[in-house]
Amino acid sequence: MPVLSVLHLTPDKQKALEHLLLERQLTLLDTHDIMVGQNATSGAIDAATKSTTEEVDASIVAEIGPDAYQELKSILDSKLYLSQVILNKQPRLEQQGAPLSPQQLVQTAVALRQTYDIAVNRSTLAIDPASGLTILDQQGLQRMSAFLRPEQLEIFRSSFVATNRNLAANRSSLEGK
User: Fold this and answer.
1) What contacts 48, CB < 8 A, 6 or more positions away?
2) Does 53 lie in the same domain as 91?
3) Claim to verify: residue 30 and residue 94 sit in the same structural domain
4) What is the pTM of this model?
5) 46 with 14, same domain?
6) Rounded distance, CA 24 to CA 9, Å?
7) Pair (115, 93) in one structural domain
8) Residues 6+ apart with CB under 8 A from 8
9) Mean of all residue pLDDT scores within the chain
């Protein structure tokens, strides 16, 4: 996993971490399946999942240390945004000759999570007519300006503008019905 390179682990520790992450995922799936099979309440499923996560995460901390674990936790918490950046943005960045490094991938995913992972429906945000950006877009770009090159930042800006145009067009068509 190239993204894990940002943790600066030795090859042995990285391999052990990859094994523990796989174990974590499989254990969580097993725990969920067992609890559902027992007709457990959602509260019981959440408690069992939390307990299982804590047990496996203790093994991860023991293997890689608390500092690397905190960085890993940030990556895991941002995995939805990380996958979106890798699948939707990185190809365009590569075409433009401005691919993100593993460190920039993680930083971008974290910045996007910090910006958009709040209880806001993006389609209800006001779009500034001059820039084509919402206030959250502007905040996200500001966060990313700390670690992205100008050409990389421009690709994200134009992507946000295109998304906002689509949202505005959809909003207009719904209002016309």
Assistant:
1) 31, 32, 34, 35, 40
2) no
3) no
4) 0.75
5) yes
6) 19
7) yes
8) 68
9) 89
High-pLDDT (> 90) share of the chain, %: 58
Specify the residue for token string 């990285």.
14
Q: Are residues 27 and 89 both part of a single domain?
A: no
CB 125 within 8 A of CB 134: yes
DSSP states of 7-46: G---HHHHHHHHHHHHHHHHHHHHHHHHHHHTT--HHHHH
Domain interval for residue 141: 79-175
70 lies in some domain: no
Distances (CA, A) of 108 to 31, 68, 94: 32, 18, 15
Whether 37 and 118 map to the same domain: the answer is no
**Distance (Å, whole) CA 135 – CA 155:** 18
| Range with top average pLDDT, 1-5, 18-22, 36-40 | 18-22
Which of 141, 132, 138 has its CA nearest to residue 162?
132
Residue 147 within any structural domain of the chain: yes
- The answer on 61 and 83 residing in a single domain is no
- pLDDT, one tens digit per residue, over 46-89 is 898 889 889 989 999 999 999 999 999 989 889 889 999 999 99
User: What span, in angstroms and rounded, lies between the C-alpha atoms of 167 and 165?
Assistant: 5
